[in-house]
Amino acid sequence: MGAAIEFRDTCFATGEGRLLLDHVSLDVEEGSVLAVLGRSGSGKTTLLRTVNRMVEPTSGEVLVRGQRAGDLDLIALRHSIGYVIQETGLFPHFTVERNVGLVLEAEGRPRPERTHRSHELLQAVGLEPATYASRYPHQLSGGQRQRVGLARALAARPSILLMDEPFGALDPLTRSEMQDLLKGLLQSMQMTVLLVTHDLDEALYLGDRVILLDQGRVIADLRAAEFVDSPQPEVEAYVRAHRRGERSAANHSGAQPAPPAERRG
Amino acid sequence: MEFFRQYGSEIATLTLEHLWLAGAAMVFATAVAVPAGILLTRRPRWAGPVIAVANILQTIPSLAMFGFLLPLPWLGDRAARIAILALTAYAVLPILRNTYAGIRGIDPSVIEVARALGLTDRQRLAMVELPLAASFILAGLRTATVTCIGIATIAAAVGAGGLGELIFRGVASVDNRLVLAGAIPAALLALAADAVLGLLERWWRVPAS
Lengths: 265, 209
Description:
A: four-stranded antiparallel sheet, B: MetI-like fold, 81% helix, 0% strand, elongated
């Protein structure tokens, strides 16, 4: 299978000359999930946003399904790419149903088709249409809102899904439910996913591949299964930072064996 | 009673005239200020200077404004035109400012998603920005309308008619009844407009999520 997304020497510099993406070259296999880790400000979000041209690279290029993103029609490109963000960005004046069908509405599809697709997707994300279709976003919990955001992103059957810390604002239990939901959906739909996250566990659980960004550069690019045991110092440091609580609790109880991340330390 | 028999129909005529002056000014001001406000959200760099100019217009004393406009040749001796132009100038600022602030105040993540999902600029404006800014824009219209109805009483100074006519006449003839016959309907008009637009504004308010 080919690459759904290819970054070719992609750079992005801010107006003040700060380099947010520093010669990123990377292929994302069709149908795979690439998890993007890194500190705040490491360029994760910027990388994601070059794919749907919310950000245009200052040099280098991004290829989507083999074609330069810059050459494609902007609106058609965006219709073909799902987009989910932490804040959900649901339209507060639209019902859940209309929110979900928005991309189809923008494409001018007839109403019955939109309604049908909305209900189908609400069902898929675990929201009973009879109960939720006519609600407004402010009548939903955080987890439900994120489900609607996910359903909206899938409405036009995109082949690429961009997710920017989609579950970052949710409590751990809701978050793990959402991760399971997404994992299930990805098994039934052929989609390439770029998942920006702060959560190592999420990256390992959902990602086929995990990359670590630092100051706009890809400093690690590993299969998810290899990430935790990578001897690379930056990766080790990242993994260790995630496991502090685990270790500290183990030390207090005294009897627990050291977790894997510490063995090497 | 005697007073009403004498002035009743004149009060009615002048009230209609007053509404016409304020109403026409509001139509022009809305037609100018809403698109201008939208344009400013696309060019936020201009927002400061443009709103400053509108602010300055607002600070000109209304009597002086009517005076300034009197000698303009293309207005001729059509007093109503002068009055409507002056009222428009006063109404522009609140509408412009609220349109701009209303759209700029929308949750950025909503705008971000609207763009990222591939809404065209026009769709984003019509489906997202205007509906979400509607209560703000209406609040601007409300302020502008009340201001216009108040200032329209000065229009009588340039002979444009309206309820100010009675007020000026009452002042000149030291007849408080005439002053009140102009002032009370003008105040009632302002209150009524305020109430109606206030209802619309509440109707359009979108609950925060």
